[in-house]
Prior knowledge:
- The structure is a single chain.
- The protein is α/β, with parallel strands linked by helices.
- The chain folds into two domains: 2-170, Rossmann fold, CATH 3.40.50; 173-356, Dehydroquinate synthase-like, alpha domain (Up-down Bundle), CATH 1.20.1090.10.
- The protein has 13 helices and 13 strands.
- The strands form five sheets. The chain has a four-stranded parallel sheet with strand order 4-3-5-6, sandwiched between helices. It has a three-stranded mixed sheet with strand order 1-2-9, covered by helices on one side. Strands 7-8 form a two-stranded antiparallel ribbon.
- Helix 5 (129-135) runs parallel beside helix 6 and helix 6 packs across helix 8 (210-230).
- The model has no long low-confidence stretch (mean pLDDT 95).
Amino acid sequence: MKILHVALGSRSYPIYIGSDVLNQPELLTKHIKSKQVIVVSNPTVATLYLDTILAHLKDYVVETVLLPDGEEYKTMTSIMQIFDHLLESKFSRNATLIALGGGVIGDMGGFAAACYQRGIAFLQIPTTLLAQVDSSVGGKTGVNHPLGKNMIGAFYQPQCVIADTSVLNTLDNRQLAAGIAEIIKYGLIRDADFFVWLENNLSLLLNKDPLALAYAIEISCKNKAEVVAEDETESGVRATLNLGHTFGHALETGMGYGTYLHGEAVAIGLCLAAYLSKQLGWLTEAQVQRIITLLQQANLPTRPPKDLGCEKFIELMSVDKKNIDGNIRVILLKDIGLATLPMDINHDLLTHALTTYGR
């Protein structure tokens, strides 16, 4: 087992990474401060892992709430179901919420924990690759709105993250690829050596090689933990973790939540960001092709859908947390392994990129 730390002073916490760590109950129970525990999951994940968690909690008062799975259900309606259970069970502010599932469950569970009685403790147990390498770490929580993804939420750190690599054996190929998109992002924004490693070892990840997966998760979490420790609330360098996300979130919103998996939309966004970086003279054509090729080899989409028009795309990009005073701001690349801070992109340049790349 590897133990990484997100260094945030009094809000610091460990990330446990390893095979079969879900069967180490002490990793869970030492972060629970009272007898009241609510486990938030979805039916698919619960069928596989809920009994294991409940067996560790036999000495606690436990409530379970199962929410429907998918980005289309990442709403305030789902959050209210969590609040209903907490209130009906008369849970106090000393209760602990455990988010057992992928990124959707983690985001909603964390947001509910941040809001209930102005904040209760919560633990992240991510069960998808994307959640293990990205959404479970760093304290971003929230829900979607029909007009914009993740526009309602809070920064709220967990007590710990328990990333069991053995649960990835149950992932289908599409979910696996979606997680790999976020892994590739880390190589692009700040770790060129890791990007080269991914080029040389992608087949091992696609075949769920346990050592390769553990290494990729560790390096991804290490990169994210360092960035979050430097900039918890995204006032500076943390924004670089959103490479490809302004494009990707617009795709998810415009095509309907659930049409694209988050990692699939981000993959297209990474390609658009690389293409725009080339248009500005920062990346070479060869570098752009390396990025596109790696994403394609990971079985990820690399072209935006033709039925989302350019003007609609830009309109959706205008609803983004990085934007200031109505200006669309995106993260681009000065080199593989070197991302820019958010920068304003004028309408004409953005239009040119969207109408010439992959159309």
